[in-house]
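Hello,

I think I submitted the alpha-D-galactopyranose job twice by accident. Can you confirm which output corresponds to this input? Input:
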Amino acid sequence: MIKDTSTDALKQYFIQTIGHKPELICHAPGRVNLMGDHTDYNNGFVLPIAIDFGTDIAASLRDDRLVRVIALDIDQNENIFSLDDIIFDPENTWSNYVRGTIIALMQTYPDIKGADLVVSGNVPQGAGLSSSASFEIAILSTFSQLNQLSMSGVEAALKGQQAENEFVGCNCGIMDQLISALGRKEQVMLLDCHDLSLQYASLPKNLSVLIINSNVKRGLVDSEYNTRREQCEAAAKYCGKNNLREVTLNELGAVKSTIEPILYQRARHVITENNRTLAMFTAVHNQDLAAISQLMADSHQSLKNDFAVTTYETDTLVAMLAQFLGEQGGARMTGGGFGGCVVVLADELLIDAAIDVVLSQYQQKTGLVPDIYRCSAVNGAFVDS
Ligand code: GLA
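Support: Only one job matched these inputs. Its output is below.
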C-alpha cells in the first residue's frame, strides 16, 4: 500500500513537535528506470524517469549547530546530532542518509546552519525505486534552500552518491540521485554517465508507466551489487580499458576464448545494454511501440542470463506481461534486481487489462501478492516547476 503523504499533515506535525511553522517543505522524487541497468557505474547510458512518489521534508533553520530530525514514518523516531561531530549511527540506520549527506555537503559548504527537520515519504522501501536517493536529494534540497546555497542538481546528485558510497557503504552509481534531482515532468532522461550530459524526450501521451513490485524480499542486494561492480571492473581491465564503456562488442569478442566466462557475460550485458538504452531513447522519441517492446524484452533476458540479477518472480511477471502486451508495450525488471520491481511501458488502453493479468496469475504462480503502482514522470527536486 502506498501511503498518501499530505504535506498539510507534515506541516501540522512540525508545528506540534517543533513549536512553530516550518520555513519550507521540500520534495524529492523516487525513480523508475526504463532502460540501462547496471550501466551507470560502467560510465554507460541510463534512461530513467522521476516518479510521483517521493520524500517530503518540513524544515526550519536553528540558531545552533544541531540537526534534529524526526522520521514520521518510522514511529516518529527522533535523531539529534551536531554538525561538528557527525559519526555513523549503527542503531538508527535511517539517520545515516542524513548524516552522510550532510558530511558530503559540508565539504563544499562548511558554514551551513543546524536545522529542525520532519521527514515523511511514500516511495516503497526496498523495492528498487530509490527511496534512499530521494531522501538524500530531499535533504540536499532542504539545506540548499535553508542556507541559500547556489547548488546545482548535478552537484547535489554527486553529493548524494558520495554519501552512499563513503558513508552508508553502498557502491552505487549516479543514476538514482541524478534523476531525483533533475527529472522532468512527462519526459524521460537519457543520461550519459561518462560525462553526466543529459537529453530529454517526451513520453508519448498514449503510453503509461506501470510498476509492479514482486514483493520478493531483496536479499544480498548490497553484497551482490558490489560483486557485479567488481566483475565489470575486472572485465574492463582484462580488455585493457578503464571501464566497460570503452570496450566494444568486437573487442570483447577478441578475448572470449581466454577471459573468465562469467566476466565475459557481465561485460556483454553492459555493452549490449548501453546500445539498447540509446535505441530505446530513439524508440520513445519516435513512439515506436514495437521497438520498445523488443528492447525491453531483450534487456530483461540479458539481465537474467548474462548479469544474473533477476529472480523467478520477476521473470514470471515479465513473461506474463510480455505475452499479454505483444507489440503494444514492454516489460522488464528495473533497478538493481534480486527481486524488487518490474516496469511496464504500454498503451494506456491496455493498462487495466495488464493489471488484471498480474492480479489473476502472479499469486497463483509465486505465492506472493504484488503491489501495483501507476506512475507519471515528474520534475526533480532541482527543477523549477
Ligand atoms: C541501483 C543503484 C544504481 C544503479 C542500479 C542498477 O539502483 O543505486 O546506481 O546501478 O542499481 O542499474
